[in-house]
Recover the amino acids of this structure.
């Protein structure tokens, strides 16, 4: 009985991640795109569904498997960074003074008081699993999620940095458009995500192996406007991917730290604008309806106007017939237009 119970505890993370991300890769070529690969930065036993070892040591002492991580409900992380490679993460760890969470075994996770960084490993499956696992531990409402990594391009200069405004999954054909509601500190570019390293470059798009899985999975945990991908060009036709070295990747990321910090500041400002002080109705409404980030900003402004017109103790929104957040905003606009306001 005890052996079966310990075995259950050991397999819990293996069962949790597929459950969290099983919707992330419903693709026509799933058998080609989600095959687990040996990657640096990911504990390989996490991907192998093998029978757990005996919970008893050689002398009959019970072993303890520190695989289930328990966190406090008031976890302060509001920014989540995901990288595929340790060499992509190293400059960020040093710059933001992140410390490794040694209680987490499945992925390498580093954090300070506000930022949590996860090294997921290479590929779409690893990225989706890393996001699902991290969010299962630390998820909070309206959190910022940023994917930082290298990408290839046919002509762009090595070291060039781009914020991604369109992501195309090369296997499924799906397209994603991360909304940009702020002025980016760098150029934007389209990107395609592939399952394997490419020797032939797309004529115009950047190319990586994780972005489509990152964006599709991240949208299950926060609003699309708070999810962004930043890519630094690491290879091109003149210097192909075979020449990439870990130290070179870290150096490329390091040169773009000011750009990364600027993007995080813009996204943090956006998050702060979503929680208006003194409007308790706002919290009630965002729990009742689903609003995008832009719609939440509109809701905040409309509630402020309604409070100004009708006073702090106004009521009546709970009886609305709106079925969606979008419908509610229309009705609220209509109510404001019909309201009598005398200075």
């Amino acid at each position: 009985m005890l052996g079966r119970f310990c075995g259950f505890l050991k397999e819990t993370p293996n069962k949790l991640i597929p459950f969290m991300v099983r919707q992330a890769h419903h693709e026509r070529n799933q058998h080609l795109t989600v095959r687990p690969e040996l990657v640096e930065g990911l504990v390989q036993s996490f991907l192998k569904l093998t029978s757990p070892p005996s919970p008893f040591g050689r002398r009959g002492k019970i072993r303890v498997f520190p695989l289930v991580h328990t966190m406090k409900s008031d976890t302060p992380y509001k920014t989540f960074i995901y990288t595929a490679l340790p060499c992509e993460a190293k400059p960020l760890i040093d710059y933001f003074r992140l410390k490794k969470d040694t209680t987490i075994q499945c992925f390498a996770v580093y954090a300070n008081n506000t930022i949590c960084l996860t090294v997921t490993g290479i590929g779409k499956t690893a990225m989706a699993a890393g996001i699902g696992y991290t969010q299962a531990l630390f998820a909070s409402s309206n959190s910022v999620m940023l994917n930082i990594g290298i990408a290839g391009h046919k002509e762009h200069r090595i070291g060039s940095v781009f914020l991604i405004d369109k992501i195309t999954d090369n296997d499924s054909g799906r397209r994603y458009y991360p909304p940009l509601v702020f002025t980016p500190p760098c150029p934007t570019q389209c990107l395609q995500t592939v399952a394997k390293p490419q020797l032939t470059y797309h004529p115009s798009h950047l190319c990586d192996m994780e972005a489509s899985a990152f964006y599709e999975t991240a949208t299950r945990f926060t609003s699309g406007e708070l999810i962004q991908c930043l890519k630094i060009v690491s290879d091109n036709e003149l210097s192909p991917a075979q020449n990439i070295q870990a130290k070179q990747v870290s150096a490329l990321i390091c040169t773009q730290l000011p750009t990364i910090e600027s993007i995080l500041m813009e996204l943090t400002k956006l998050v702060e604008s979503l929680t208006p002080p003194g409007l308790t109705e706002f919290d009630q409404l965002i729990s009742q309806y689903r609003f995008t980030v832009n719609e939440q900003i509109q809701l905040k402004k409309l509630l402020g106007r309604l409070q100004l017109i009708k006073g702090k103790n106004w009521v009546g929104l709970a009886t609305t017939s709106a079925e969606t957040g979008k419908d509610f905003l229309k009705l609220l606009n209509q109510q404001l237009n019909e309201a009598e306001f005398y200075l």
Q: What stands out?
A: The longest strand covers residues 144-152. The CA atoms of residues 69 and 103 lie 7 Å apart.
